[in-house]
Amino acid sequence: MDERTLRVLEYGKVLGLLADCAASSLGKQRALRLQPETRAEVVRARLRETTQAAATISRYGTMPLGGLTDVSEQLQKSRAQVALSGTEFLAIGALIYCAERLQKYFEEAEELAPDLYGLVQQLSDQSKLREEIERVLDEDGEVRRNASQDLSRLYSRQGVLEGRGRERMDGIMRAAMSRELLQDPMIVQREGRFCLPVRSEKQSQVPGIVHDRSDSGATVFIEPMEIVQIGNEMREVEIEIVNEIKRILRELTLHVGAAAGDLGQDLANLAVLDFIAARGRLSRSMDGSEPLVREDGVVSLRQARHPLLPGKAVPIDFWIGDKFDTLLITGPNTGGKTVSLKTVGLLTLMAQSGLHIPAGPGSEINVFESVWADIGDEQSLEQSLSTFSSHLTQIIKIISRADAWRRRQEAQASAERMNCLVLLDELGAGTDPAEGSALGQAILEELHETGCRTVATTHYNDLKVFAYATEGMENASVEFDIKTLQPTYRLLIGQPGSSNALDIAQRLGLPKRLTRLAREYLGGERVSVEDALREMRQSQADLDRERKQATKAQRDLEKLRKEYAKNLEDLESRRAEAMESGFDQALDIVRKAEEEARRIIAELQKQPRQSKVTEEKRQQVAKLREQIEREARERAAEAQKAMPPEPSAPPTPELPKAPVAPIAIETGQRVRVHSLGREGQVVQRLKENLFLVEVGRMRVESLASDLEPLEPEVSEEARRLAHTMQMRKAPTFEPEIDLRGTTVDEAITELEKYFDDAQLSGVSEVRVLHGKGTGALRQGLQKYLRSHKAVKSFGIAPYNEGGEGVTIVTLK
Known about the structure:
By secondary structure, this protein is of the alpha/beta class.
């Protein structure tokens, strides 16, 4: 791709947004190096990965990539058997733990994200190496005292010697204090040796080795001779401890070196997963969607938005490559022509890079071999180039590439057309309008003949007429509200625009005589062109209005047809009920009504698609519905009275004389009527133990003993509301809460709301940061977690995830 094109379309800024979504430096590096792809199969594969990442994040939350760092240098050192430090081992352990968490994360995502699942399955199992690192090193990367038997023994020996030394030093210090030889009554250490702070003038009275002197010279730090031997033994043990630690780290380095090949591949795969996850997160942040990838030159964008515009951008609908290959956009300044141009170019580059685009579902992007753009004022004072010269320099580069393509095709006797997208802003501007317009026509014709998909903006009327008269070219405009003098930023393809300069000037207050004089100076030919364009726009507007009216009439007709179809379905349902219950008379009525409804619908279908349904037909259907419901109710009531009672039921609906315990049945409750084997809804309590129940299209009186209360159903509206809340909450929810610095009561209050948000977001595991401190906050929170109804389990985090300062909570 052309570097200038990438710059003027601000492709780098999109890569910056993508890098911000990555969790590691490796993912950020891949994001910043991303380039558009020209192979359609690769573009489809990348888009598919992005779609799977966005779907996985939406369902399961952010991918657990914390702890992923670049350890390639440490792996190289381990291969060369250069001992690693404790912090380097911790980084490798974090890498292994990250891989393990991702494998667990994707356990249930195979069907949702098969490509990502396959990549995760390639991660090696290094759990034993991680366990060994955790056994040897503590959370700070220091070798544990019990890392080996020899090290444990040496630390025990060191403790014994230190205790013996301090005991001897206590006696020496008390004796020296009684003789007033010390500057302060304390035991200090210098270079690992026990010393006393002796007054410099009394130095000769304390036999021993001088290890240090204060800055003022008033104090000398002396190791008494009586303690020198113990100090020597402590020093020897200290050397042995250091050597044993080095041996342990060398041995652990060999283990890492043996697995360095697999770990290097895991690092590469995790970097790729981080990069793919960043694409998924970017898609969700800009409400992106996966476009359909085409190779026939067709581009179709629905409700497309520029991803870098602040606030709520006005979406545009754009298409090219089907009925026309060249699109000329006109309209006033600040109307959005350049934004439309940039939106098309930038979204094309994003899609070819495997990124979702901020456009509606069903949008289509062609994979172009090249995208060339000349946008913006790139006047150069250093090179003495005017705006016109700067634009022309870039256009010459584009034309030269088109010429080279043409020559290659002629040499190969091929009729294949160029697969490229050309974006030209203010074509022919910066010079004499007549010459600029003529030059613009020549450029458009050249690019059009080579097959380039070309989108250009201009103010010149001659170019509008040229596009109108040339097959395969089309005009478009950005809408401008002349009443408010404000652009609407809507792109109207098929409608040439106008600068509206004279109209705008007049509405801003310029005297009419001046605008009238300006029109005279403008010339009859120019006015005729403007009038023709205005009439064409008016005709287009009238056509659009008629099309909308026809569409509305069609929708109304379709709505009525659906209503009649539902009525027919109701009739079928009533017939089934009648057959099941033995309502012969009701069935006969239903059949007659059904025939009448079919006759009405058949008459409707014979009418033209745009015609309106007469009020008479509406009334016929309404009367038919009332007749069906009234007569069916009457026959159903008669049949119900004639039905024989169930063997277990009392012969009459009279209440029994003996008192009966009331059953907890309320009006509006869903119940099962055992005698009918059907479900219904309680309409009214007639007596203490007798209810009126609506079953299907009929109402029956039933005893409480014949009714079984049913669990209330969750309405579709409730389900939809819950789903909406989850979708709104999930993108902003962070699976980690920091409660450090709060009291137990304050923390519990915050945690209660946080758990509600977590369940609304569909997250099953969260991290609670409480710090180590005195442990009071941790103990208080864990006591609270034991009794919380939403908590399934909890435990302290691994050392490389915060250890005792973090609690991992699994929610139900």
